[in-house]
Amino acid sequence: MSIETIVIIGAGQAGASAILELRANGYIGKIILVGDEVHLPYERPPLSKDVILKPEETKVEILSVQKLAELGVEVIRGNAAVKIDADTHQLILKNGEVLGYDKLLLATGGAPRRLPDLDALGKHVYTLRNLEDSQALVPVLQSERRIILVGGGVIGLELASSARSKHCHVTVIEMGPMVMGRCSPRLLSEFLLAQHRQAGIDIRLETRITGCSLQGEEVVIQLENGEELRADAVIYGVGIIPNVRLAVEAGLDVDFAVKVNENCQTSNPDIYAAGDVATQLRADGQYSRVETWENANQQAGIFARHVMGIEHPKANPAWFWTDQLGINFQFVGDMSAAEWHVRGTMDISQGPASSFILYGVSNGIIVAGITVNAAKDMRHLKKMISKGIAFHADTHLDLAQELRKIA
């Protein structure tokens, strides 16, 4: 069957990447991009960093009006999709417009997991998911302001770093025993914790909030231990909820996210999903969801190649990065590796001058790697993991050995 029309719901990273991949691989049919935001597709990683720190000079747009026109894409902005009729291959928009499709890609991302007690305060409480959220924080994060961040994950720590760079007084409240506990080994988590505390950020681990209120222009947070914290603003980031309503109502197979096979197909072969909204069948036979920039791009590429009947390459080891306190951290592979080994000097006192590598090893094989201010070495770690190289301490930890020669 010839594919004449592809509709993409979601004008984010996955949606934009799908467009580029389709055209790059020779798709000449119609592409319609549907976005509920008024913006053209834009990058999300800078929202917690450069958009706040350098708002005037930071550009986040992925595809311009001109580029989309060159690619022959019909763009619908600020008009959300409200219903998929899988039987008739039609998509209904908020304004009542009906679009027909041959293949459909769900790239609807996710929404912040809500904390209703904080939301109820309204004033001085913020989350971060889109460009408007980030722009709203620019006037909030000003020198000497007292900022409480709820959640010590990647976004929470990046925002803590940004707020501290703007000379705010910052407190981070984390329920768990580690910062970045879902995506970082303890060794690196402890290094991150020490760096933030050294920068003057007050991080509270294993801490629960029992109450919150507004008192004039202050937000008051009560902790389980009876302590009371006061702030000029509270920002929370405690994960996301995939935007699956369209998929559920269309009768697709959904657990927490939209289940897709290795080709990013949902339970309906003409509907695909990619990015934060999708939980994919992996090589180990398990379904998992990955919230990274690279995963959105990778799944978009899988979708584009599959609808065109082109074989897609084997998935790369999971990779993501974060920039905090002037330090670049890059992660690849299985962060639950059984043991970790340090190449170089893991010296907390060096701050932004820190530079070292961590190997994650399971059953004698290198299954993960982390670079700290050593981005140039990441490609060698990726190669080691893809090849399943055995770890040898005398070689891999020897700084006289070039990584490119032992990868």
UniProtKB/TrEMBL annotation:
Residues 319-406 form the Reductase C-terminal domain. InterPro entries: FAD-oxidoreductase/Apoptosis (IPR050446), FAD/NAD-bd_sf (IPR036188), FAD/NAD-binding_dom (IPR023753), FAD/NAD-linked_Rdtase_dimer_sf (IPR016156), Reductase_C (IPR028202), Ring-hydroxylating_dioxygenase (IPR053382). The keyword Transmembrane helix applies. Keywords: Dioxygenase, FAD, Flavoprotein, Membrane, Oxidoreductase, Transmembrane, Transmembrane helix. The chain crosses the membrane at residues 356-375. Pfam families: Pyr_redox_2, Reductase_C. One of its GO terms (molecular function) is dioxygenase activity. Its EC number is 1.18.1.3. It comes from the Bacteria. Residues 5-300 form the FAD/NAD(P)-binding domain. Its cofactor is FAD. This is 3-phenylpropionate/cinnamic acid dioxygenase ferredoxin--NAD(+) reductase component. The lineage of its organism: Bacteria, Pseudomonadati, Pseudomonadota, Gammaproteobacteria, Moraxellales. The gene is hcaD.
